[in-house]
Design brief:
This is ABC transporter. GO terms for molecular function: ATP binding; ATP hydrolysis activity. Keywords: ATP-binding, Nucleotide-binding, Transport. It is a single chain. By secondary structure, this protein is of the alpha/beta class. It folds into two domains: about 160 residues, P-loop containing nucleotide triphosphate hydrolases (Rossmann fold, 3-Layer(aba) Sandwich), CATH 3.40.50; about 70 residues. Helices cover about 40% and strands about 25% of the residues. The chain contains nine helices and ten strands. Strand 1 and strand 2 form a beta hairpin. It is globular and about 50 Å long. The protein binds adenosine-5'-triphosphate and magnesium ion (MG). Adenosine-5'-triphosphate binds next to strand 2 and helix 1.
């Protein structure tokens, strides 16, 4: 029996002037799975995340979350519907401490929390993401991986059903990478559904249940990590990019 579909993307199309960034993209994400969204630089991965999260409206196509058509809804409405994201370039509030950063997220969720309730929830979240010891550290003073943890915490504060991670593991050193992988695995074990844009092959192999591969805006493969990474068209897309 196949798992319930949480997100369904169909016929998704986005052009920037004459450039087609996303071309007839179609894929489903099942409840509880980690879907890897792969592809060479500029293939349209972040644009797909932007179309799903409402940062950009598509020219054509549909995004359906748990049976509800969320296509072209404003980003805050989509966030309330249950989709949270992190950004390719970390976005935190550097002058605020970690508790305050998480509180800013808690204030934006459906059933927002303030005051003591927010502080309590923020501490629980910091514990969940491994930042319990940094409650009062200004976000700008955190190491890179801890800044990434904090950004993840802000996304989790929205209590998403679906989490979008855009190269969340990029730029980590080997030991940080193992910590990052363990944290994503823990979120999956807690029942979260995740779409992960990622280039780090170790992370893809160890985390993704399934991968969709894009090249120049178009889906070229959809399957298990082993299958898609061995697909000649996928290999050509990556090597071609490296030699471009
Ligand atoms: N706001 C925008 N305006 C114009 N062109 C854009 C815009 N956003 C993305 N593009 C272009 O669309 C294409 C896809 O970009 P996108 O950022 O989605 O790729 P990506 O797969 O995330 O790449 P990377 O791996 O480098 O992050 C690129 O050619 C990019 O230059
Ligand atoms: Mg990108």
């Amino acid at each position: 029996m196949s798992a319930e579909i949480l997100l369904s993307v169909s016929g998704l199309h986005k052009a920037f002037g004459g450039l087609i960034a996303v071309n007839q993209m179609q894929f489903d994400v099942h409840k509880g799975e980690i879907l890897g969204l792969l592809g060479p630089n500029g293939s349209g991965k972040t644009t797909v995340m932007n179309l799903i999260s409402g940062a950009l409206p598509p020219n054509e196509g549909k995004v359906v979350l748990a049976g509800r058509d969320i296509t072209s809804l404003p980003a805050h409405t989509i966030s309330h519907a249950g989709i949270a994201r992190t950004f390719q370039l970390v976005r935190i509030l550097p002058d605020l401490d970690c508790i305050e950063n998480i509180e800013a997220g808690l204030a934006f969720r459906p059933g927002p929390l303030w005051g003591d309730a927010a502080k309590l929830a923020a501490r629980a979240l910091l514990d969940r993401i491994g930042l319990a010891d940094h409650a009062h550290t200004p976000a700008g003073d955190l190491t890179y991986i801890d800044q990434k943890r904090l950004e993840l915490g802000r996304a989790l504060a929205l209590q998403p059903k679906l989490l979008l991670l855009d190269e969340w593991l990029a730029g980590l050193n080997p030991s940080e990478l193992q910590e990052g992988i363990a944290l994503v695995r823990k979120l999956k074990s807690e029942g979260l559904t995740i779409i992960m844009v990622e280039h780090v092959m170790d992370a893809i192999r160890s985390l993704c249940d399934r991968c969709v591969v894009m090249n120049t805006g178009t889906k070229i493969a959809d399957g298990t990590p082993e299958t898609v990474l061995a697909d000649p068209e996928v290999i050509r897309a990556y090597l071609g990019d490296a030699h471009a």
